[in-house]
Structures are given as C-alpha cells and as structure tokens.
Amino acid sequence: MIIKDEQGMLAAGKQLALKLKAGMIVFLEGDLGAGKTTLVRGVLQGLGHQGAVKSPTYNLVEPYIINDQPVFHFDLYRVKDAEELEYMGIRDYFNNESICFVEWPVNGGDLLTEPDLLIKINIYGTERELLISNYKDS
Ligand code: ADP
Ligand code: MG
C-alpha cells in the first residue's frame, strides 16, 4: 500500500485499529522518520484516544487505556542491551489483555514474543510503502 502523506498514514492507522484485538503484538520496522509513530498515533485515535501521543523514544514505553483497553507503545531505538528490557519487566506487558506496538523490535532480541502483525514501512521521498503481514501465518 502506498501512503501519500502524514494524513494518509493516520488514516491507515485508523483502518488498522479495526483489526486489533486484545493480546495482539504489532512490530513496526522502518528507518527513522518512516512514520512508525505516526501510524501508531492513527491507531490510537482509531481506538478512541483523545489526548496527545508522545514518541516513547526516551521512556521506552508509553501506556494508554482506551475504553478499558490497555495499549502499550514501545520504542526500543535507544536500547543497547536487551537486559535493559529485562529490568523494566517487558515480558509482563505482553499478555492476553494488552495490545502492544513495538518500534525497533530488532533491539529487543529474544525477550520479545513473536508478533501477530509485522509492519514494514519503506520511504520513497514523501511517500511511504506500507507492508503488513500476518506474522504467525507466514
Ligand atoms: P518514526 O516513528 O518511524 O521514526 P515518525 O512517525 O515519528 O517516524 O515521523 C514521520 C515523519 O515523516 C513525520 O514528521 C511526518 O510528518 C513525515 N512524513 C512525511 N511523509 C509522510 C508519509 N507519507 N507518511 C508518514 N509520515 C510522513
Ligand atoms: Mg518513532
């Protein structure tokens, strides 16, 4: 799918929100500035979140509760050693009740469970190519 601009990415996130269920894990791959956080912002808005959406680059995780649904947005860009994630108790976030988004899952190593969806974003100037795969089926 080709995404023309930021608005398009937000719209794609809102579409994605319709497919999410409690317990799902979504990995987001793509370079800095690809639009991973923008896509999550669209998802959160689609789920009914009204407030701001911060990039969790410095805190590693931003928690949300949207209409009783816990959603955790991780950004592991700054993680150098997966042990940091062990200390934050990352495993506890991945459970049957939560929906988890993970930017830079490559930095999570073996500590991350396999995702339900793998989303890859490629940059072509101002356009983005969005590739979504059902990881567990592939
Ligand atoms: P990431 O989380 O992947 O590092 P962000 O979502 O934080 O990326 O930032 C993406 C940036 O790219 C934003 O500043 C956004 O306005 C810009 N942008 C330009 N074109 C697009 C597009 N087609 N889709 C998404 N973002 C775009
Ligand atoms: Mg980001």
Describe the protein.
- With 138 residues, this protein is of the alpha/beta class.
- The chain has a single domain (2-137), classed as P-loop containing nucleotide triphosphate hydrolases (Rossmann fold), CATH 3.40.50.300.
- Helices cover 24% and strands 30% of the residues.
- It contains 4 helices and 7 strands, in the order βαβαββααβββ.
- The chain has helices spanning 6-17, 36-47, 83-87, 90-93, and strands at 2-3, 25-29, 61-66, 69-75, 99-103, 117-124, 127-134.
- The chain has a 7-stranded mixed beta sheet.
- β6 (117-124) and β7 form a beta hairpin.
- The radius of gyration is 14 Å and the shape is globular.
- It starts with a strand and ends with a strand.
- The model has no long low-confidence stretch (mean pLDDT 95).
- The chain binds adenosine-5'-diphosphate and magnesium ion (MG).
- Magnesium ion binds next to α2.
- It comes from Cycloclasticus pugetii.
- GO terms for molecular function: ATP binding; metal ion binding.
- Keywords: ATP-binding, Cytoplasm, Magnesium, Metal-binding, Nucleotide-binding, tRNA processing.
* Corresponding CATH architecture: 3-Layer(aba) Sandwich
Any idea how many domains? Answer: 1
Question: How do the helices and strands follow one another from N- to C-terminus?
Answer: EHEHEEHHEEE
Low-confidence stretches: none
What is the end-to-end distance?
19 Å
- How would a crystallographer describe the biggest sheet? 7 strands, mixed
Protein name: tRNA threonylcarbamoyladenosine biosynthesis protein TsaE
Subcellular location: Cytoplasm
Family: Belongs to the TsaE family.
InterPro entries: P-loop_NTPase, T6A_TsaE
